[in-house]
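pinging the channel bc i need a second pair of eyes. not urgent but kinda urgent?? the chain im working w is below, pasted from the shared doc
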Amino acid sequence: MEEKASLSKKALAIGVIIGLVIGFGMGYGIAQQGTSDFEKNNQISQLQSQISEKESQITVLQSQITDLKSQVSELQSEIEELEKLLPTLKRGTWNLIETFSGKSGVTTDYFYVAGTELRINWTWSSSAEEYAGFSFYLYREGQTTWTSSLFNLQKEGTNYIHNIKSASYYLDILEANLDQWTVTIEVWIQE
């Protein structure tokens, strides 16, 4: 009987050990699964937070795009209004940009040159021709050095300026003892 009791204790001990091993293994597996689920839930939460941030950024960008489209529309409207004020330029011919005239020296208003070839015509008259003088300088807007200059000009003439940049320009006109002068500015528009 003692042997039976010993075997019964051994069987019980083996059963307890097997139970502990199996329980420990199952417990470990369940614990790992729980940790894995926790990490997955944490990752999902982080991804949802990132998605929310990106959606917020998209909303801001869409608002900026809407504002920019509105600004572009306003600018296009302003361009159309300005184009109505400008004379229509013909291709393959000289187009009159501006005519200036006076009796004394002057710095002109700006005029826009929409091409690369400029023609400047001038005439002047004086009741004291032997003491008369006429010169002018062409300046591009924002520049302090002249683009072109013409000195001691005859009573009438034409000068060509080649390879000029499309921009706004003005003339600084100098005279001495003139009764009247006239300057016309023309631009050649390529075909």
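so Residues 93-189 form a domain with the Jelly Rolls fold (CATH 2.60.120.380). and Strands lie at 93-102, 106-107, 111-113, 117-125, 133-140, 148-150, 156-161, 167-176, 180-189. — does that match what u expected or am i reading it wrong
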